[in-house]
Amino acid sequence: MSKQLRKPEGGRRFGAIAAVLAVAAATVTGCSSSGSGQQQDDSAPLEVWIRQDAGSPAAESAEALTRAFSEESGIEAKLVAVGVTDFETKLQQRTAQKDLPDIVINDTGQLGNLVTQGLVREVDRDGVAGSGDLADRAWEAAQGYDGKYYGVPFNAQAFALLIRKDWRDKVGADVPTSWDELIKLAVKFTDDDPDGNGKDDTAGMVVPGTTTRGYLTWWFSTMLWSEGGGFVKKTGAGYTPAISDDASIKAVEKLQAMFCDSKVVQPGATTADSSTTHTVFESGKGGIYLTGPYMLPRFDGSLGKDKYEVVAAPPGAGGEAALAEGENVYMMAGSANEKGQQRFAEFAASPAGQKIGLGVDNGGIIVRLPVNTKVDGATEREDPRWDVFQKVYDTAGRNAPALPNWSNVRQISSEGLNGVVSDCSRDVGRAMDELAGEIDAELEKQGAKG
């Protein structure tokens, strides 16, 4: 592929990015791309990848989506369900082989990686059919550091609290309206034997605190932003660290106190990933879990929908905020059918595609919250709990910063945060100053320093 990469505007702050893109373009030379002289065939079949395990209900929904697209467009499309754990590895293998799939449905958080490697085509937002029906917040998550779009929104989600309602009734507490009240409820869940078994075996707060894939940062983002803090902040044309600001330090001090003072988190939280924390909550060992809507079907089956309630995370000193994420349809570089790529993306984001993705018929959820404003997911599912997540997304959802590589900053931040919750003697202010220095160096490396 001889990919033509447009140099981002904006002067030297994009110098490092341009250099990376140039290297990436050379790396994938031999593939085909937009404007590169690759012969186009509007009827050429499409290979579609999605990050789901083969044979899963979610993969079945993706297969239904792909099949419906082919029936509607007349373009043959083959779905490849690539396992969750080795998706990036397999994509890099195909990159090395100079044989990318045509379409990749992947996390919004991976956009920076895909762009800096030169693996995705730029998207003309105004040229996408139905683009005006897609939520602005979803489009924001398809936007790169240079302000251009590199994906079409497909799926969104925001995070809310799952609280054991039966435990809350048992300890005589109201629904928390602030983070301080939430932590007090967590203390009651930890100390007051909410399950009534006479044992000291419950934790108030369920936290995936491992550094793996930046889980602790992922979980803590909602709390940090609600308290008015941040990992980075926009400064001029770039970003500077915000984790050592006063509001951030106060939020991290609250986090450390949850682990070290009130001790409301589950045992082993500092090494727990989400697969572990899911089990803690559904097994009756934890009472409050900040997570996404995709867990409702599982917990309804394992725990019972009458046992827990869905509540928006409360406002903090900085107001209401919640981590928003999702997935985009990425049109990969080198396709012989670029018109077909765009038609697939448009279909996936259309009301018809979104409704298939809701998985109402088979439980295979690949659209958690619709990105198309003409689709009401709670109504389609006949479950008002989904509307709680939708309202959080609409009113308080906050995407991760549009850095060239947010995942690196997320990982660095997670390691710094894990250090202060694993070692209760650590001074938070000093530790966050050190973390700010590491983030600053990473921003410099990415050419994103303001």
Number of structurally distinct domains = 2
**From the 3D coordinates, which CATH architecture of the largest domain would you assign?**
3-Layer(aba) Sandwich
How far apart are the first and last residues' alpha carbons, in Å?
A: 34 Å
- How many helices in DSSP terms? 17
Main sheet properties: 7 strands, mixed
Report Rg.
Answer: 22 Å
Structural category: alpha/beta
* CATH fold-level topology of the largest domain: D-Maltodextrin-Binding Protein, domain 2
Q: State the total count of DSSP E strands.
A: 13
Structural features, described:
The chain is of the alpha/beta class and 450 residues long. The protein folds into 2 domains: 41-157 and 324-398, D-Maltodextrin-Binding Protein, domain 2, CATH 3.40.190; 160-322 and 403-446, Periplasmic binding protein-like II (D-Maltodextrin-Binding Protein, domain 2), CATH 3.40.190. The protein contains 17 helices and 13 strands. The strands form 3 sheets. Strands 1, 2, 3, 4, 11, 12 and 13 form a 7-stranded mixed beta sheet that branches. It is globular. Keywords: Signal, Transport. It holds the Pfam family SBP_bac_1. It comes from Streptomyces edwardsiae. Belongs to the bacterial solute-binding protein 1 family.
